[in-house]
Amino acid sequence: DTEVTQTPKHLVMGMTNKKSLKCEQHMGHRAMYWYKQKAKKPPELMFVYSYEKLSINESVPSRFSPECPNSSLLNLHLHALQPEDSALYLCASSRSEASGNTIYFGEGSWLTVV
Amino acid sequence: AQSVAQPEDQVNVAEGNPLTVKCTYSVSGNPYLFWYVQYPNRGLQFLLKYITGDNLVKGSYGFEAEFNKSQTSFHLKKPSALVSDSALYFCAPREGSSNTGKLIFGQGTTLQVKP
User: Fold this and answer.
1) What sign does the dihedral A110-A38-A61-A68 (CA atoms) show?
2) Smallest Cα–Cα separation from A52: which of A35, A65, A66, A69?
3) Mutation test of the interface with chain B: which of A95, A99, A103, choosing the one with the most B Cβ atoms within 10 A?
4) In which order are the strands placed within the sheet that holds A18-25?
5) Residue B46 is nearest to which of A43, A45, A104, comparing CB atoms?
6) What is the pLDDT of residues B10-47, one digit of tens each?
7) Does residue B65 carry a pLDDT above 70?
8) By the 8 A CB rule, do B34 and B85 touch?
């Protein structure tokens, strides 16, 4: 089973709202990732957590705040977003950050900022 | 700088014909090489990867990929295309020399298989 589950599938939020995206995996993976993807473009890495600690932040604006409550869960807290933040947000996981490990992606959360 | 080239934005093939989606890369060390597929309005699905060993790697849904070290290429192939293979395909090397290398995505190639 290589399932990464993301909720909600669709989210519409205003620029003053606070919302969260959630991600869960039960594969025992210790690395988890957030990516942002615009239509027909490659995914862009945002954050990497390794053993529940933030390992990589790709200079993401502070209006995006990641959180890893435990080894199975990853959240992305959203606040004061801009319309250009509208995109598909993909969560992913792998056994560890080691380069040979396969990264498995969820189905994504479609975010629209109005 | 690390880079990946998928030279064709779109590849069109007839159902039943063989298909090739090209990928060349410029990544330091001996990178690990991945292919992902994205169906419309879906997330990315892992297809196959090359770590070491046999240059021909077999993956999901009948896809395979050929690693060529001298040409730094990792082309995706399938002997007989299906209409359901129509999707967006990403080649993604990952630095092998670093223990925590990021996936470096190509721009993607849209595969269109016509009946």
Assistant:
1) positive
2) A69
3) A99
4) A4-7, A18-25, A73-79, A64-70
5) A104
6) 999 999 999 999 999 999 888 999 999 999 999 999 99
7) yes
8) no
